[in-house]
Design a protein that fits this description.
2 copies of one chain form a homodimer.
Chain A lengths: L1 E6 L4 E8 L7 E9 L6 H19 L3 E5 L7 H20 L4 E4 L1 H9 L6 H11 L9 H31 L8
Parallel strand pairs in A: 1-4, 4-5
Antiparallel strand pairs in A: 1-2, 2-3
């Protein structure tokens, strides 16, 4: 499974592409950041983010785009920009028919470090180890985007089993327990 | 000046097109709502909003797109969807090189009713009167989109004079007072 992770933001939008399946070593295919100048018009910044994400999608053709789920409880001054950048990422993926998966920051941290309250350094260290990199990707937004992609690869089997169970139940069939 | 106002929302995105200049009677060119089903995937909803707004831009070719400025202090359960829908509207406009103007809800209310704390009914009544309609546009999102467009037409001259004054000051010239 090839997943493009997006850590959304107007100033720095982290992008990371990871390939693999749960239970096997993972491979990083690319990592980077789409930046837009803080003094540019908001509309122009959203267009620049769209162009940047389109390029990443063209280059890597992911099967899934995993985006950080934004909560409004977060830092009030940045949350609107984060929501707007995430909307552009979801729009770009959905327009191509690529499924979009959302994971919360604590789900991502728990997936890669075992703790939903891990700090940035811990996430960076685990991303480095899991992808066998020489050093943690910089900036943190890039490392977070890779963590999102890893999180999706590892959570997807459980989510799929859950969806199958729900579908079985809905169709009236008797689900087998495993 | 032809302005397309957008009252952003995922379930109902209000659209209203108004033509005119400050101090003259205004004309409504169109009003409507782009709707997306609440049970659809978020990415698909954003794509549907993009398609809807693109159609309105194609039909009416506005010179400016006025979008409600979203604050994170608002209703927490809907603010993220509002931010995401507004991002799509700004993206569509900026991609075509159409300037995007943001106005807060209280600026819009103050512009059309004289009070920044007017209720929906008051805004609807004034929009009906100012555009010489037979009845208030329904739903309220459609009336709000028209109010945004009216607000922009009326505020634009003051904003332009302010920008000119700032530019004059920045260039070192001595600004004339009017």
């Amino acid at each position: 499974m090839r997943v493009l992770g997006v850590d959304p933001g107007l100033t720095r939008c982290g992008i990371g592409v990871v390939e693999g399946v749960a239970g096997r070593p993972l491979a990083m295919l690319g990592v980077g950041v789409v930046r837009t100048p803080a003094d540019a018009e908001l509309g122009a910044r959203l267009v620049a983010i769209e162009q940047g994400i389109e390029e990443w999608l063209d280059t890597h053709r992911p099967e899934v785009v995993a985006v950080e789920r934004v909560f409004s409880q977060h830092n009030v001054s940045t949350v609107m920009g984060t929501a707007q950048a995430s909307a552009v990422a979801m729009l770009c993926a959905a327009r191509r028919g690529i499924p979009v998966a959302l994971h919360t920051p604590s789900e991502v941290k728990a997936a890669v470090t075992g703790s939903g309250r891990a700090d940035k350094a811990q996430v960076g260290a685990m991303v480095t180890r899991l992808l066998r990199l020489d050093a943690p990707p910089k900036p943190a937004d890039a490392a977070d985007a890779l963590a999102l992609a890893i999180c999706h690869i590892w959570r997807a089997p459980a989510q799929n089993r859950l969806q199958q169970a729900v579908a079985l139940h809905a169709s009236g069939s008797k689900g087998r327990t495993r």
